Amino acid sequence: MNFLKILKKTVIDSQIYVSVMGTLFAVFFMKEQNTFRFPTILLIFITYFSGYIYTKYQYTKHFLKILALNAAAGVICAFLIIHNHNEVRLLKWFVIVILGLLYNSFFLDVYIRKIPLLKVFYVGLVWALVNCWLTLWEFNLPIFLISFFFITALVLPFDIRDMKSDTVETFPKMIGIQNTKYIAYLLVFISVILAIFNLKLIYATAFFLTGIITFILIYFSENKRDDTYFSFWIETCSALPFLFLLIMEYF
Known about the structure:
mainly alpha; transmembrane; 251 residues; membrane; transmembrane helix
């Protein structure tokens, strides 16, 4: 039990886990589009990790340390882009970083997280832009829509988890847990259908299998469940396409 608590604190609560999951989600589409490159993977992980720790710790006593860490991360990311890509990708990355800051920043009077019902779609938007725009030469609409609908669906269970503590209106608070699940099911279904018609067969199959597992995990999402159910199992859904792809490719 102590080991599990240490693991949760060092990997999940530190935002490393969600950053890895987001990176693997992007890797799945990079492989499908033949744009797989290790510097890009590192760029995406650092961007996710620095963004999530900034969001979580900006109002704590560790703020100055987090600010310094984010500044260092920004320099590293800029170096990776300049050294391995071009100024266009640097601009794309900068736009995504700005969108992340607009989500929740101490220097803003009104930020996205405070706006009722908008949070789930905004997170889906940012993750989708990483997959369909940052890693590719041109904006890819099918990948954007697949990512957007899927990630938006994954954010809804977190609103179910937080419905008693959220101070803004969310879908579970407004329409109830069961109706929120119905929306999540629909979004996953749309995402899977789009994947089937737009991705190569092995990638579409991996995404289809991911959709099945995601449906099951959404079904069992309840407000009374332990946080680990959401921060580990629900978060893992975004890495499942890549994991299923590996299984089918190598086994």
